[in-house]
Amino acid sequence: xxIRFTASQSxxxxxxxxxxxxxxxxxxxKRLVNALTDSTRLEQLDENYFRLKMRPLHFMTLTIQPTVDxxxxxxxxxxxxxxxxxxxxxGVKYINQRFNLNLTGILETMQxxxxxxxxxxxxxxxxxxxxxxxWLTPLPVLxxxxxxxxxxxLLTIKQRLTHQLLLDYRQWACDETKVLAKGQQRSALATGx
Length: 193
What we know:
The chain is of the alpha+beta class. The protein has four helices and nine strands. It has helices spanning 22-26, 29-36, 93-96, 139-191, and strands at 2-15, 42-46, 49-53, 57-59, 62-64, 66-74, 80-89, 99-112, 115-129. The strands form two sheets. A seven-stranded antiparallel sheet has the order 1-9-8-7-6-3-2. It has a two-stranded antiparallel ribbon with strand order 4-5. α2 (29-36) crosses α4 (139-191). It is elongated, with a radius of gyration of 21 Å. The relative contact order is 0.22. The mean pLDDT is 84.
């Protein structure tokens, strides 16, 4: 029995702009991904390509731990895109051979009444062929449980985006401002101004 689960999550976060605009911060995929997830579960495969070992997920009688390869990139207009490209369920061969995960996301800055906002949306879909013991479970129970599980995954990402990303942006902007100030001091000393 193949079953499909879906969830989506939107964000609209007001941003306190620092001396360095958040658009500059968002152009750094590794920093952005590190702010969204625990860095101990993350491996950078190339500049914009990452492998995330998710926390174990509990579904009915199964415990699975997906490992997701995802690409993160930005457009010339500053929109950030996230797309899963590959997924593996380690340790449960039956599920791994019958499992498909699709994660897409977009994040962009917008000015609303003079305030910068991060606005975005993520969509998560899982298709899986359930093992025979779960075939006896009523379909509405399976769907409610699976959709709830995916919603909780996206809610965790949203919470990290809302808190951790903004904290990291403030720290990064502060560090960048200090580097810029030191560079200007050196330049002034070198020119004798």
